[in-house]
Amino acid sequence: MRSVCVPSAARLAGAILLLLATALPARAQYGRPVMSDPAVGENYHIEGVLNLWNPDLNATIESESLGIVGDKLDIKTDLGYVDKQIREFRLVLRPAKKHKFRVAYTPIDYSGDVILSRDIIFNGIKFTVGLPIQTEFKWNTWRLGYEYDFLYHDRWYVGFIAEARITDAELMLQSPVDDEFTRARGPIPAIGGVVRVYPERHTSITAEFTGFKLPEINNYEGDFFDFDIYGTYSFTRNFGAQGGYRTLDASYLAKHDNGELKLKGLYFAGVVRF
User: What are the pLDDT digits (tens) for 131-153?
Assistant: First the structure.
């Protein structure tokens, strides 16, 4: 299992959250007065978002079996995967102005069909160079969370996030000599923060960061750091469009299997509110 250092994006997220959290009250006190007309995008109880994310993918996975240590497989170099678009679905239930219940589902699914360029050991089985293999890599995640916006004004807010991420990671490998797979599932808690500002009533800028490192317990361990910064333009109270940049760094250890996943890139989204 790798030693985890908070990535540069995480440090940037913390700096942005701290800067906005301290600067916004000062602006309200010493700068222009806070606008009395509320932001267009804040009048809702249910919000649904469909994200189309185009990240750069980096991932490794290894599996041990029968006491035979597995090789670390790079899913691009060894398995021939290429970057592809990922869809993410988000739902926010907002019973009160400062309270939000958040649900998100991110299905990640890649497949490859290559001739091995080196010998590899996977799940206790050796696959030799020159062997054709077909693989499928999945890393699906549910996010279930709660957000409390403890500082809330017409044109900006600062909030706290607590959530659980339920991850299901799997690699399936097929070849003329054998079929193998490895799978790891489990929840990881997370905490973080969010800041949103409205330069004008139709347009918002949001910075959000969540993360956690789960210490090793009975040969199980996991961590992730997720930073998301995006802008939203609300055409009306009910409809909007988003564009942003997101980085996700995650890993797991499940007994003798482990994997790492890094995704970063731009995304675009549609927003519906009621």
Answer: 999 999 898 999 999 999 999 99
